[in-house]
Design a protein that fits this description.
The complex is a heterodimer of chains A (291) and B (175). With 291 residues, chain A is α+β, with helices and mostly antiparallel strands. In chain A, strand 6 and strand 7 form a beta hairpin. Chain A starts with 6 loop residues before the first strand and ends with a helix. Chain A is 34% helix and 25% strand. Chain B has 175 residues and is α+β, with helices and mostly antiparallel strands. Chain B contains five helices and five strands, in the order E-E-H-E-E-E-H-H-H-H. A five-stranded mixed beta sheet of chain B has the order 2-1-5-3-4, with helices on both faces. In chain B, a hairpin with a 2-residue loop joins strand 3 and strand 4. Chain B is elongated. The two termini of chain B are 31 Å apart. Classes of the chains: A alpha+beta (291), B alpha+beta (175). Chains A and B meet through strand 1, helix 2 and helix 6 of A and strand 4 and helix 3 of B.
Chain lengths: 291, 175
């Protein structure tokens, strides 16, 4: 229950951090440490080097730029949750963060760290998928943008290369006439979700659903877009019938096997109902949303 | 307070080491430590401030909660080297030098908010930081339960801890 031996590298600049990534075959990036430290304490990970990016000035804070919210690698979850400018730009972020662990963990945990850690049951990867965000990675060859749909591969596995560092995530601002909702079912407050849903619902001028983006967590080996549910919504009138159809369509997305917490059948039921409830709330909010 | 921090002992480990300087309960401390040492173990083993308890060592139980630069955090999920330059407050730093209890401690005593006491330092630090960092604290049943949700107590039914939060608010003129 103590971390294994590793070389500790405190990077002062992004270049130093990327350099250290390139010269170590198996390194881990330390930001807030709320995912990395437990894996070190359990010795689930034994990196040869731990690169501490906590003091890099260029990685602090957030910015709203045009249609995108820039969340830099050291922006703490709690700070983002409390940021009114970010709430105004996309209120789904605050709603989702409220379900991430506990306030004291969010005090130190980072958004980019949680997304890079990519736990299949975690809330923030689903947020990135649902909003259609992206990860900005910096490596020895420069910077590249990885869209959310191309980022998550498997439980705790992403398309980030071993010599890259996720320096930012970009989350689009909330589109016009769009409602939002995050809902999950957990055994205890603050636990990982047995199933969770992140939903964005856009209503057209005719009152019908013009766009829908849904993502689920806790239901598969990675966070997943609920494409079938989205398909069942487009062009339909929001309401009991279309939402029920979307819930039913979402069931197939559950591929997680039975475990001691929940059976696959129960997870499918949970996801179905969470989709319906999240859509109800999102539709209500879309009606009041600025056009 | 200075008497409670233990002097440095000769080190036998061959771990890579690094010198860190930080403020603990108002006192500046400089130590050369193993870079894999957890902040919780640094406080307990190096400084002998054993009021910070270690329960689960993976961030679930909340016993090791301390304040890092004024904000509550899990000391078991923080490397001591990450706290280099930081200001740390532990349970030992709450009561006044003359022994007068902090209002949260006083409230725990009055409301019998502990039985075995193992989880108490973590609860007290978490609650204190909530009061200090928030302009207004939600003192509804649900608000208090949410405030306490990151800390586990295995003896009580939490009833008295909830009562202690309300009493602490009264004592601090925050209710």
């Amino acid at each position: 229950m103590k971390p294994p031996l590793f070389e500790y590298i405190r990077a002062e600049t992004i270049e130093q951090a990327v350099g250290a990534r390139a010269t170590h075959e198996y390194s881990a990036v330390l930001a807030g440490g709320q995912s990395l430290l437990p894996t070190l304490n359990f010795r689930l990970a034994r990196p040869e080097a731990v690169i501490d990016i906590g003091r890099i000035a260029a990685l602090q804070g957030t910015a709203v730029q045009g249609q995108e919210i820039i969340v830099r690698a050291m922006a703490r979850q709690r700070a983002v949750e409390r940021d009114d400018a970010i709430f105004a730009a996309n209120p789904l972020i605050r709603e989702t963060l409220g379900h991430v662990a506990h306030a004291i963990v969010r005090n130190r945990g980072t958004i980019v760290g949680s997304i890079s850690h990519a736990d299949a049951a975690a809330e923030l990867p689903a947020l990135l998928l649902a909003t259609g965000g992206a990860v900005i990675a910096r490596g020895p060859k420069g910077e590249r943008r990885i869209e959310a749909d191309a980022f998550f591969q498997f439980h705790m596995t992403t398309t980030l290369k071993p010599d890259e560092i996720a320096i930012e995530v970009r989350i689009p601002t909330l589109p016009a006439r769009t409602g939002w909702a995050f809902m999950e079912f957990t055994r205890r407050h603050g636990d990982y979700a047995l199933a969770g849903v992140c939903a964005l619902l856009t209503l057209g001028a005719d009152g019908r659903i013009s766009a829908a983006r849904l993502a689920g967590c806790g239901i598969a080996s990675r966070p997943v877009r609920l494409g079938a549910a989205e398909g069942a919504l487009i062009g339909q009138a929001p309401g009991v019938t279309s939402f029920a159809a979307a819930g039913r369509a979402a069931r197939e997305a559950v591929t997680a096997a039975d475990d001691r917490q929940a059976s696959k059948a129960f997870r499918r039921h949970l996801l179905d109902q969470l989709v319906v409830r999240a859509l109800n709330l999102a539709a209500e909010r879309a009606t009041g949303a600025p056009s | 307070m200075s008497r409670r921090i233990a002097p440095a002992l000769p080190e036998r480990s061959t771990d890579p080491r690094r010198s860190i300087s930080l403020t603990v309960n108002g006192e500046t401390v400089t130590r050369e430590i193993s870079t894999r040492l957890l902040l919780s173990d640094f406080l307990r083993h190096e400084l002998r401030l054993t009021g910070t308890h270690v329960g689960c060592e993976h961030g679930v139980c909340g016993c090791c909660t301390v304040m890092i630069d004024g904000v509550a955090g899990r000391s078991c999920l923080t490397l001591a080297v990450q706290a280099d330059g930081a200001s740390i407050r532990t349970i030992e730093g709450l009561a006044a030098d003359d022994g007068t209890l902090h209002p949260v401690q006083q409230a725990f005593r009055e409301c019998h908010a502990l039985q075995c006491g193992f989880c108490t330092p973590g609860f007290v630090m978490a609650i204190t930081s909530h009061f200090e960092e928030s302009k207004s604290v939600d003192l509804s049943e649900e608000g208090i339960r949410e405030m306490l949700s990151g800390n586990l107590c295995r003896c009580t039914g939490y009833q008295n801890i909830v009562a202690a939060v309300r009493r602490a608010a009264e004592l601090m003129g925050r209710s």
